[in-house]
Amino acid sequence: MEQPPPLIHQPSTLSTYAKILDDYETSRWSIRQANSRLHAHGLESALENDLVRQANEKNQDNAIPLNDLNRRQSNNPYITHQLVSSKHKTYGYADPFAIAPVEAWQEIKDYNLRVNGLPTLDQMMRLNTLSPLTQSQFSTFLKRRNAHQNLNFLVELETHEKLWRAHLGTIERQSRQRLSRFLQSLESLADSPPPSAAAATFTASSDTQDLLHPPTPKDFTYASRTPHGTGHEQSLSRHDLVQNAIRIYRTFCSALDAAQPIHLPDDHRAALDDLVEKNQRPEPVVFDSARAYVFEILNVFYYPQFVDAVLYKNVATASARALLALGLVLLTTGLSVEFGLIFSGTGTYATRWWGFLPFLLAWSSILTSLTHFAWWLAFAGISETHFMVYIHIQDKTVQRIHRKRAFLWLLLTILISLITTITFAFIPAHRLVAH
Fold it and tell me: Which tens digits make up the pLDDT trace of 186-214?
């Protein structure tokens, strides 16, 4: 008989018996060894030691093991290395970027917008947001970057989904009307007396009856199941929805001749070509994958730029260039006045301060041309979208941020103008004399 291997020191008596019960057929010798351990230490002392050991293990689980701090692992989802293990353990938190970095970034960005009182892209498209954070302004912003077709695609899908819901509502309403007319016909048949054979009459018709104009039925109840004057002829049909889906596909998603090509991978285009163009499926769910992809591009890349442009800019590019030219002219004028007073030897130190006004206007124009932000427009509560085209700012958060920035830029402009004026004010006069 084969002797069992030497007894291995078990971590606990309870775990020993659990292992014995789980694998009884292959480890029958362990029962005798466990019993010998119980007889050696006593049942009560063994159970007490097990409880103390379990309490210590529970306390150790709440702390981060010291050996885990030296592991060569990284929580950065963008770093791929052979030494980085995907089965690392987290303590007290879960990394939102570990599984889906783009989705986590969208959630964090949308949360920051809501905390600061700004609408998200989804809210801007569903709700009537205040100017300048509106869908029309976002479309204008995208046109300058040649990406407005992506927003047009989402708007077309929203319209197509509304048409689909209207089509389903029409079908449901027609089903209820047919059921109601059927029940009414059953009630009328039950109330009417049964026809007798003696009262039956026959009407002779000519064999040369006009077959191009069928006779009008005597009983309008059975003549048609569609009520007249309900506008059913003008309601949407499935064929109309199919044509609308094909139009959307050919306008935005076709890989060959799309009039407004959008940002969409080739596999999405191939799937839409198979579902819409070949199989003629008009359901809005067909476009869900393409909608999610385009929305993700707008939400992650373009919409943050639009929000930054709204919050930190209120001057159009053409106006900024014009203000740069005006600022240089005014700065030249101020310098000419100061140098004229110095080298002509006329006036006093108080006269030198007349250059402060052209310097203030010059630096205001130059700084505005560089930052595309005019402090006077912010105090007036307006913003320039195109050259000499202004809109009123209705969003309270945008107004507050604009006025705060306007106050800071005004102080900076005054400070620079004062430094420039003081520099020339204390230069002693020196009259130039021709020899």
Answer: 777 777 666 554 444 545 555 444 444 44
- Could you tell me if 114 and 120 are in contact, meaning their C-beta atoms sit under 8 angstroms apart? yes
The confidence score (pLDDT) of residue 54 equals 73
Domains and CATH numbers, the chain: 13-61 (no CATH), 129-186+236-303 (1.10.167.10), 313-425 (no CATH)
101-144: per-residue pLDDT in tens? 666 666 777 767 777 788 999 999 988 899 999 999 999 999 99
Of 321, 336, 343, the residue nearest 432 (C-alpha): 343
Residue where the block lists tokens 């064929």:
239
